[in-house]
Amino acid sequence: MNPGATVRPAAPADQARLAAWFQAAFEHLKTSSADPWFEGAVKPPEASSAHVAQALADGSLLLVAELDGTPAGFLHGRLERPYVAESPIPKIGHVSLVWVEPALRGRGVAQAMIAAAEAWFRERGIGWVQLSYQPANREAAGTWPALGFEVFRVHARKRL
Ligand SMILES: CC(C)(COP(=O)(O)OP(=O)(O)OC[C@H]1O[C@@H](n2cnc3c(N)ncnc32)[C@H](O)[C@@H]1OP(=O)(O)O)[C@@H](O)C(=O)NCCC(=O)NCCS
Predict the structure, then answer these.
(1) Exposed, middle or buried by CB within 10 Å (0-12, 13-18, 19+), for 7?
(2) Whether CATH 3.40.630.30 fits 5-146
(3) Residue range 36-62, pLDDT digits in tens
(4) Does the beta carbon of 25 lie inside 6 Å of ligand 1?
(5) Cβ(142) to ligand 1 under 6 A?
(6) Has this prediction a pTM greater than 0.90?
């Protein structure tokens, strides 16, 4: 792990930066994925601000990373039920969005945020953490297996 990457819980003072990052993440996923479900999808900046405000207020996990003192990215996560409704596992950790500033990628920022998220989940008695990504997202497809995540379920669809 890069010794310069530090991670802390997000604070209300991070609101504007986080909103810009949430917006950048949406635009990046939209333009890089070529997913037809993104065609025509628009996220106004106010929606990103509202998304951040809710994440700051609802007790979910919202982390900010800094690299050598420079704001570098965020991780948003929450607790949820496993997809098997009958599972005796009450809750799992779900990492819903991770974003690292393009110029600061490949320096251990995501690794540091995932380690902090895993600690947050463990402190709450959680034994599993999951996330999802598109296989065509090369950064994600390179990062998550490197950080120990294994594919366990595949989504399939066809256009009608
Ligand atoms: C995916 C993302 C969060 C990774 O952040 P990062 O800070 O660059 O990742 P790290 O430097 O912590 O790398 C962690 C591991 O993933 C690997 N990795 C990171 N980027 C990679 C890439 N583009 N290709 C292959 N492997 C990669 C690293 O080598 C490292 O593995 P190692 O510990 O074995 O060396 C970042 O690229 C990003 O923000 N992408 C745009 C948004 C996005 O796609 N988010 C994920 C959606 S689910």
Answers:
(1) buried
(2) yes
(3) 999 999 999 999 999 999 999 999 999
(4) yes
(5) yes
(6) yes
